[in-house]
Amino acid sequence: MTFLGFTIYRAKNRSGTASKTVFVTNYTRYGRAKAAIKAKILQIQHRPIAEQVQILNSSLMGHFNYYGIAGNGQKLHSFSQQVRWDWRHSLSRRSQNGRVTWDKYQEILDKHPLVFPKIKIQYQDLSTFARL
Predict the structure, then answer these.
(1) Pairwise CA distance, residues 121 & 129, whole Å
(2) Residue 82: inside a domain, yes or no?
(3) How confident is the model at residue 132 (pLDDT cuts 50, 70, 90)?
(4) Domain range enclosing 55
(5) Among 22, 40, 67, 68, which has the highest number of CB atoms less than 10 A from its own CB?
(6) CB 116 within 8 A of CB 80
(7) Would residue 52 count as lying in a domain?
(8) Tens of pLDDT, residues 85-127
(9) Burial (CB count <10 Å: 0-12, 13-18, 19+), residue 59
């Protein structure tokens, strides 16, 4: 079942004795979010790096706050990695000096860190937000 950007299903544990409700980002919404953040990165690529990080962090926090439900950690991590890869690619296209190496990119991230995904609603708290 799909509802509010989540695919909701019941999953059993490996032994088949217990089950839980799992919320995962819907693949169409996930693709749309990746395309939107990539367009935003291309739109802001010539601004100063500090300003880019501020804009990207606000977008990432909004995404993580909405989709940060237990069971969706893998999609959040995948989205975060995609943003990091797209931003590095964008930084490499900013000048004629060549691409930004991973070492140089790590220095940039050390100075201007991007936020990491965080689960906002744990499994034990799900029952207060939704009737399962």
Answers:
(1) 9
(2) yes
(3) low
(4) 27-124
(5) 67
(6) yes
(7) yes
(8) 999 999 999 878 888 999 999 999 999 999 999 888 777 776 6
(9) middle
Long-range contacts of 37-42 (CB under 8 A, 24+ apart): 37/63, 37/79, 37/82, 37/83, 37/86, 38/86, 41/83, 41/86, 41/87, 41/90, 42/90
Q: Which two tokens stand for residue 12?
A: 């059993």
Quote the pTM value: 0.85
DSSP assigned state of 124: G
Q: Taking the C-alpha atoms of 95, 100, 104 and 107 in order, what is their torsion angle to the nearest 10 degrees?
A: 80
Residue 87 belongs to a domain:
yes
Number of domains in the chain: 1
Select, from the ranges 22-26, 29-33, 68-72, the one with the highest average predicted confidence (pLDDT): 29-33
Q: Which residue has the tokens 């009737």?
A: 131
Reduced to 3 states (helix: H, G, I; strand: E, B; else coil), residue 96 is coil
Residues facing residue 3 across a β-bridge: 6
What is the DSSP-derived secondary structure letter of residue 123? Answer: G
d(Cα 116, Cα 84) in Å, to the nearest integer? 10
